[in-house]
């Protein structure tokens, strides 16, 4: 079994590593791959037991998924998501605080990071909408982050494959700088003409992941995803981090710098809090100027698992 010291390099693909408990760390080779390509894949970052526990806490907790809202793709479809700014002390908070997630981000970003926000993305079978081409920094630039020193960890809770609208990423595009973005339908979209030219010169890759696999990617990496027209649900868990010295210059709907208290990798399985969500600071989408949510539409499409 490979570990972070021995990357599995696939031609024209992102470098892949396999998480090995008590042995995993960011090596110079892994950092070099991230800097060159804008992303690395870590297989089995979460065990199946950890994934099952996270899903159980989400499916049995109406106070999380009951806050989900719909993001339109302009074609009549939408994806559902819920975002919170502080990790909290429940199982979902442990995911953002464990060292195998947070410390890996810190090492890849060359400095202290803090939790910017976490989101649960829900593309339900046959109904989940597409996400338009964008860079995360296309959103976060507008929040007052002066530099693109931010990173996202995309963790698959369900299988993420082409059939159910997995992430599509364009390798190396974090080196293109920030692309102009504008509000299209309900989303912030990268300039289509610029994207068209970029796709002629950079390689598009499908980030197909099994439950527990993760993609660590730079905030300027260009990415999108298709609709989920399959019979498979596609839930994913995304933790975003900002460099501590990149504190946004004004307060907004995501977190300002707050020291991140990391916990051991065993914390997810050891956590017994499945329901107390105090302090997580769930985001109100109507306060986010980088998306457009129609209030009447939002009420009609709000997730209801009761």
From TrEMBL:
Which stretches are tagged as biased composition: Basic and acidic residues? 285-295
Segment Disordered: which positions? 285-306
Gene3D superfamilies xrefs: q2cbj1_9rhob like domain
Required cofactor names: Fe cation
Against Pfam families, the record matches this protein to: PhyH
PANTHER family from the xrefs?
PHYTANOYL-COA DIOXYGENASE DOMAIN CONTAINING 1 (PTHR20883), PHYTANOYL-COA HYDROXYLASE (PTHR20883:SF51)
Please identify the protein, giving its name as recorded: Uncharacterized protein
Can you name the source organism? Paralvinella palmiformis
Q: What is the lineage of its organism?
A: Eukaryota, Metazoa, Spiralia, Lophotrochozoa, Annelida
């Amino acid at each position: 079994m490979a570990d972070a010291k021995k990357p599995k390099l696939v031609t024209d693909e992102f470098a892949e590593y396999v998480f090995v408990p008590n042995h995993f760390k960011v090596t110079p080779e892994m950092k070099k791959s991230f800097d060159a390509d804008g992303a690395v894949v870590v297989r089995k970052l979460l065990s199946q037991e950890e994934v099952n526990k996270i899903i159980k806490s989400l499916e049995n907790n109406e106070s999380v998924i009951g806050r989900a809202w719909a993001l339109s793709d302009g074609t009549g479809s939408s994806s559902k998501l819920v975002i919170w700014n502080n990790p909290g002390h429940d199982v979902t908070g442990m995911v953002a605080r464990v060292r195998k997630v947070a410390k890996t981000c810190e090492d890849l970003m060359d400095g202290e990071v803090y939790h910017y926000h976490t989101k649960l993305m829900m593309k339900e079978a046959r109904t989940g909408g597409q996400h338009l081409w964008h860079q995360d920094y296309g959103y976060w630039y507008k929040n007052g982050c002066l530099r693109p020193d931010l990173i996202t960890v995309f963790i698959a809770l369900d299988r993420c494959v082409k059939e159910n609208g997995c992430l599509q990423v364009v390798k190396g595009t974090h080196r293109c700088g920030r692309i102009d973005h504008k509000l299209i339908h309900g989303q912030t979209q990268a300039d289509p003409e610029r994207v068209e030219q970029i796709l002629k010169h950079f390689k598009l890759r499908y980030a197909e992941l099994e439950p527990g696999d993760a993609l660590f990617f730079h905030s300027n990496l260009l990415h999108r995803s298709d609709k989920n027209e399959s019979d498979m649900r596609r839930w994913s868990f995304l933790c975003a981090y900002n460099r501590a010295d990149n504190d946004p210059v004004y307060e907004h709907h995501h977190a300002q710098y707050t020291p991140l208290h990391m916990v051991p990798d065993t914390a997810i399985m050891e956590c017994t809090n499945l329901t107390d969500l105090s302090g997580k600071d769930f985001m109100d989408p109507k306060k986010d100027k980088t998306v457009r949510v129609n209030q009447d539409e939002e009420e009609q499409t709000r997730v209801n698992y009761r």
